[in-house]
Amino acid sequence: MSEQEFFGHIIDNEEVESLSGERFEVWNPWKREVWAEAAEGAAQDAERAVSSARKAFDEGPWPRLGRVERARAIHRLADLMEARTDDLARMDSTNMAKPFEQATHDVARSVWNFRFFADHQRDHVGEVYPMDTGHHTYSEYGPAGVVAAISPWNFPLMMATWKIAPAIAWGNTCIIKPSEDTPASVTLLGRLAVEAGFPPGVLNVLNGHGFPAGAALTGSYDVDRVTFTGSSITGRTVMASAATHLAPVSLELGGKGANIVFADADLDNAVYWAVEAIFRNAGQICLAGSRLFVHSSIYEEFLRRFVAAAEKLTVGDPFDPATRFSSLASKRHFDKVVSYIDAAREAGGRFLTGGVADDGSWVVRPTIVDNLPLDSAPYCEEIFGPFCVVNSFDTEEEVIHLANDTRYGLNAMLFTENLSRAHRVASQLRAGTVWVNCFFIRDLRTPFGGVGDSGVGREGGNFSREFFTEPKAVVMQIAR
Ligand code: NDP
User: Fold this and answer.
1) How far apart are CA 138 and CA 152, in angstroms?
2) Contact in structure between 229 and 152 (CB atoms under 8 Å)
3) What's the 254 CA to ligand 1 centre distance in angstroms?
4) Which of 76, 77, 224, 250 is close enough to 145 for a disulfide, judged by CB 3.0 to 4.6 Å?
5) Is 438 a catalytic residue?
6) Which residue has the least CA distance to atom 14 on ligand 1?
7) In angstroms, rounded to a whole number, what is the distance separating the alpha carbons of residues 63 and 53?
8) Which residue's alpha carbon is at the smallest distance from atom 13 of ligand 1?
9) Is there a catalytic annotation at residue 174?
10) Which among 88, 48, 98, 122 has a CA at the least distance from the CA of 193?
């Protein structure tokens, strides 16, 4: 990568400037300097991208390619991504200070998104419905059309591929708008799609800000599906915009995940996952275990170990192999997390460790706080940073109530060695995913999404198929 790389739009297999010629600066948050520029998309650029995708869908070969050829093309892209793993990971690390080892892991997961959905659509089966009327019915899953995908900055490549992979695998064409903070890896992905021989218009990358570029996509009458990951507030705007042309939406939004540690938990395991759940990616994870509930009988012991483990995390340059934890992804986000730290102090929270690094960097150290009022903003709202609020509990009923007492419902974790309790509590938690004695493990066949303010719809396996296709029932008369 040169010092000042440029990331254009990729429209119709060409990397282009915006029609206005405008660009915006791309930051390296660890070094606090501009390292690249990207094309600043406006409504007219969005229109170009949408009409390219529309033409590719209505007239191009992609939806008509057949499932085996399409899978082959997607595997070719996955091969190229694998070969460029270091470049893709370096872009995310540079662009948002993700430790390089974690960014490398994200690339592997992104490759798997493509391989999984390529094979999933290649091998899928429809349903046959025997009827007693002298007919039979079967289902078909045809592509939905043009997909607008809007992805966030916390997993720049991984979240984008989680949307693009099922969309194109099922024969749709796609426009991805990465976050303005992290355009690099997704633009490289677009270049690789060209290299892999994708027909023009199948995968377009539109760079720019949420408004106007993202909004122009979600509001376009030529877009048939909108898939979005980001904040709950923007999710509402996206849904309203898609409603103007009745495009179905899939929204993966914020979270305030409960992490419950019962007295009989394997404490080493629970501490390990508690650290991963809130400090991996500096807590910039919608699935973060940001509310930790620990049984009162082990409260002090657990906190002692948890604080010690948090303080051991090596904070530093994302490219240093020893680094487990680096700066936040942008100055804007740093300021937001700092405002919650200030609010937690004002609300009387007890800081067990952490706080702002105070060295001019955009680092917030792994922070653990208890004694926060249950109606205070840092307890209730998604902070999206390395900030864990801890509470004790005495009974199962009490902790289920505490865990569910939130507008969010993306995920929860629970740690116990009691099998019956694990099942009983898991089934009562209001969340899209519950992890028992683990965290972050995914099987891509399973539903992923949240309830309440955490989202609308589910993706993964057949759930992605339902969203990215137009299922059709074909009824045949067989009796004469
Ligand atoms: P946003 O929800 O604003 O951004 C997410 C994506 O949506 C970005 O690509 C953004 O573009 C785009 N966008 C913004 N406005 C619009 C619009 N009107 N129409 C279409 N697309 C739009 O998140 P932020 O980056 O502002 O982060 C704010 C908070 O959101 C975080 O602090 C965190 O709490 C939460 N968040 C949750 C995520 C999750 O994984 N669930 C991921 C990211 C954030 P652009 O970047 O150019 O604004």
Assistant:
1) 38
2) yes
3) 10
4) 224
5) no
6) 210
7) 11
8) 210
9) no
10) 88
